[in-house]
Amino acid sequence: MKKIIVLLSFLLMPFLTGCGYNTMQSNDEGVNAAWSEVLNQYQRRADLIPNLVNVVKGYAAHEKDTLMAVTEARASVGSIKATPELLNDPQAFAKFQAAQSGMTSALSRLMVVVEKYPDLKANQNFRDLQAQLEGTENRIAVARNRYIKAVQEYNVTVRSFPSNLTAMLFGMKTKPNFTVENEKAISTAPTVDFGGKK
Amino acid sequence: MLCWIPLAVLLFVVGQAKSDDLQSIPEFNSYLVDTSVWLSSQENLALRQKLEEVKSAGKVHIAVLIIDSTKPEAIEQYSIRVAEKWKVGKKGVDNGILILIAKQDKRIRIDVGYGLEGVIPDAIANRIITDDMKPLLKGGKTYDALNIAVDRIVWYVQKEGSVQSEKVEAPVAKKDGGLTGIDAIDSLSGGALVFALILAFISMICFFIETGWAILVGVVVPFLGGAIFIPALGFATAVTIAIGALVLAIILRFGLSIGSSAILDGGDFGGGGSSGGWGD
pTM of the entire structure? Predict the structure, then answer.
């Protein structure tokens, strides 16, 4: 009897591979790699800011508020320790996302303001920085998209039956995904007061 | 057991790209694909030849795509899809460049592969578009614009020398199965039989979801397991069969992954590059 049980359990046990455990592991690695790339690109953007602020200052010193907003946004982004562990803490992840969107809005306000200064726009240095910034924003978008796909793949495995049983067994939870926060705020374009400043 | 059918359907649907409304990506059949038939056949031939020569020189692979419009997507969104599908450039080196022109939108984009981001940073790509291509495109000289872009890119690449790929390794999640599964099974020592039985029944359900080559591994482990725990089965025979099946499983697995590799040379893109337009 015991022999039959042993034989039966070993005949059935290889199907363990079908439980999604290994898929979950490789998906998890995919998520981590995609996340590192996202962090990489956000860092790249943050690194561009000091140069940008300096060039704009040279032509548009009056725009102190806008420049200050950009510098402050960069500081708040820099204060968050962006590591892979961020994925396991939804609160920290939300904070990180908020800081980065703050950076994005500060930058877009700056670019709107810059339109007032044709000399600045013609400056080769500024044009190069602007190109770098646009390129980095695109890279961020691509990295985020890839991260979203990776998380989708991972979460589907963790949540669908029957691999969710394995997930529960090994304590694997779903990972956070990017959301569009404050959709209302984003859909209204930022207003720039051209009136009193000059 | 039938409850896995709706799940399979759901996963299939989720796995499909939601791309009904988006522009399709033309098939890659040469380094110049002109779906809007903008260049004359002579220009087409000449440019194609030039791009082939550039590729043979080995330092950079340039592909040109001319289409009517990228709507509803922005040119950046469309071109990264093309770049990810065509995979211009050598795998690992990632020395590909994609020049995309949307004729009706009056937009250009140059996408730079990971390996060339140091050689052709976004600012340079922007300069090529704004300073070199834009005036020519405004004057209707598409062929000249493309020619000068290719020349510029080649010039920058030659100036720099070697090309290094700097991308972060992003492994595609593969259905891994088998080999590490065996380790997981070995770690369950003989004393955990009941636990193993429960797990095995759960696994049976999972089995129908996973890809078919897991079956092969299913042949290996019983024999291996049986050989260790039931000496009566005949150790030598069991191990031989197990090894044979394992070898077959490995060949099948790597065979499958080769089949699913990139369309072109496997070059990767990260979204670097620049866009511009000549519409104003």
Answer: 0.69
Q: Does A26 sit within 8 Å of B176, measured CB to CB? A: yes
Q: Which residue of B has its CA nearest to A149?
A: B15
Q: What distances in angstroms separate CA B221 from CA A15, A80, B54, B186, B229, one per listed residue?
A: 10, 48, 52, 10, 12
For tokens 């490995």, the residue is B250
The sheet that has B32-34: what strands, in order across it?
B32-34, B61-67, B96-102, B107-113, B269-277
* Chain B closest-CA separation from residue A196 CA (Å): 30
CA angle in degrees (0–180, nearest 5) for A42-A60-A135: 25
- 3-state SS of A125-182 is HHHHHHHHHHHHHHHHHHHHHHHHHHHHHHHHHHHCCCHHHHHHHHCCCCCCCCCCCC
pLDDT digits (tens, 9 = 90+) for B90-109: 988 899 999 999 999 999 99
Arithmetic mean of pLDDT over chain A = 83
Identify any residues that bridge with A8 across adjacent strands, giving them in sequence order: none
Q: Over the stretch B68-87, which tens digit does the pLDDT of each residue have? A: 999 899 999 999 999 999 99
Give the tokens for residue B52.
Answer: 């082939």
3-state secondary structure of B169: coil
